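Piwi domain-containing protein (Coemansia pectinata), 844 aa
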Amino acid sequence: MEPPPFNEELSKYPPQPKDSGQNAGTKVQTNYSRVELSGKHLYVYHVSIVNLDAHSSTRGQGGDQQVTEPLVRSEVFAQAQSGSVLSKKYIYFDGKDYAYSPKSLHKHWAEPADELKITLVHSSSFLEFPCQFEVKVRALRKYDTKELQKYCDGDTRVPDSYIQGFMYAVDAIVRSCPKPQFEDLGGRYLANHRPVVTPWGYDIWWEYRLTMRPGQGALFVNIGAKSVPVINVTTNLADLSRLFFEKKVAMLQRKNKAGLEFKDWTSFEPVVRGLQVVEGQSLVGLSGLSTMSAAQMTVDGESLASYYRRKFGQDIGDPSIPCAIAADKRPIPLSLCLLPAGKRQIQAVVGPWQRDDFFKSSAVPPEHRQAVLAHGMRLLAQDDSPDLKAFGIKITPTLESVSARVLDPPRIMLRKHTAKAEPVEMREGRWEMGGKRVVESSQLRSWCVLVFGHQMGMPPALLRTFINQYVKICVELGIDIQQTSPPIKYATAWNDIERVMTEAKQLSETHGHRSQLVLCILPFNSVSLYGEIKRVAMTIVGVQTQCVQSSNVRSHNPKLLTSIALKMNVKLGGFTADLHADDLPGLSQIPTMILSADVNHTTEAGGMSVAAILSSTDVHARRFAGTVLQHPQRMEYIENFDTVIRQSLRLFHRSTGGVKPQRIIYYRDGVNDAQMQAVKQIELAAIYRGCQLIDPQYRPLVTLMLIRKRHHSRFLLDSGNCEPGTCVSGGVVSPAVFSFYLLAHRSPFGVSKPAYYLVLHDDNRFDAEDLKRLTYSLSYMYPIVTRSVTMPAALYYAHRLTGKGRLQLNRAFNTLPHFTKTPDRELSYLVPVHEALRDTMYFM
């Protein structure tokens, strides 16, 4: 699909309010530091390096090939630079596609003014023999520091695309230039500030990530810290594997089960892949593990054990375990894979039985995390590299503090023993359901329990106890369950889920009532079984399902039962809590429809994209209906959006008794800076077209807000995490676009992460405080928890629906089609759900 014609009016963004952040009453610490950029200009050049040698090992099948190995590219470019006009000016090459210079390189080139060609012969340890290369350097763009300063001062005349390119260039320089004050592990910068030592073969270090961002009045660098496992074993991979599997082996022994099975080694393969081990006097890279044991492997017809004894006089160790596979496909016994002394390596994956321990060990208190960030910024500011000096980049060693304010929480309304909803007490964004009832109860008349397994594993008596506890919790919550003793069905054969689900649905259809719910008990955590159950239920059988693992049935924890009850209540048409009308500014006074959308780029079928669009169906933004679209691979903007808008408006009109929304508030997730303008142009225009499909004269006022969660911004008080409702709208936010950070929840451990909102369009001309308060209030309306969440509930629904949407395709993952970017509109289509579930919140 070709993007629509550029609309200059739609390209503009609402400016940052002038009093943004000035009336805040709280100071919070950030993980930002100011950056001084004293250089006047920054020149960007594109670098192409082609191998001209037809016999080179780097040559592809299609003739001369671009060299992709960064180390080879860096070596070739350095040689080209030393013997050419490039040596006359300072130039920094990032090892990929671009070179940067604070002075013009191309003004005095003899060739065409924008391109320089250099041919040379280069040899290195990465090549089998010397090869001839052609290096092309082409001038791309010149950036002016004064324009950046104007943008930071709020000048909206500076194009947003100009600043994005400038930031990309400065980012590349700061991120990729050598940093001797950090531990450099393959381009990842680590520091051992307060490392955590574990007994599983690794220590937990801190990896630092840097991002340059324009702020209000200044340029900032944002520093993020992520915990990573660094191998501390100094012997061999066999010893590392014993520590890796130690916890699982102990668990098997407690259960009187046999030791590790060969299939268990698949979890160890990601750890091995990419590691370097010592062989003789050199380092050898590993590509993974063998698919058979060492005892089954041979070399030229001779067993591997015999081969190593005869040729090297070495014992291969345990023959029942797999071997490591070198990059050249040779098998190496794990006991002979010596880890290099003094060379640290990142362990790619921790095992599933270690994951909880890893997260507990790496989830440090806020004050610890702030110390880690401050340490990293001090190290970064100590950098006296010639690269940063050449560009006039100087980083302040101290972290920035900014003003913030704490928004008042909304009033949560629940029923007690009367039909009238009343406010409940709330603390730190949480409230308790004890003695309270949901504001809107569903009615459960016909349901059944479907157990995947045998009666020996899940006895009926145990199941009845769980059901009784579940019914009791539902009654306490005010949920009307008329059938307190549902029928139970056991399914021992899982090769025909459609037949099993159909029988369960028929079993639950009692007294003339159609089936409302099938409660599925799963024997273990199985993505494939869960996915098949949901696929069949949503698209073929047409019945609501709720899955519970058998271990939770045995424990029947009250909190878990409450969560299941609340989720079931929402699926069947009820709702948990309401907000006071005053806390939803104008939502009920002026008919308003809330929209949300997200695009999920899956890993199945080569990266198919699935989009989900949600729209509210009532004036209180309680109930939502969703639409799923499947469209071309990796495409961010949503096709057929106007068709979905028309459907959403019709549903709102029907559900509210003939009310047309006068306002639309659209929350959009998952869009980066480079895609922001295109998404706004395409999707906003589609909303207007969808309204015109209802009535050519109908045009409600639209507000478009972008939300970002994938950032490293953090805000802290001296005493720890900020309070829920903390809003930062000055300093480190965008200087030119109306934007703010909002911390709507309180994390139970670690550091709370705020969401970043950018207002891209606002026909409604909302007061800034009203828009912040509305967004914060909607974060309390996620009905399956009794607390505020990170972002408005509508966006959580969109996330859930993109996950469920892949299952709605009604095809197994391995048969999903592979989509590519193409103008063929037929590749974008609505994904159907069974008519019995349409317009329900089945995705919860």
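The chain has four domains: 38-176, 237-341, 441-571, 578-831. The longest strand covers residues 131-144. ok done for today
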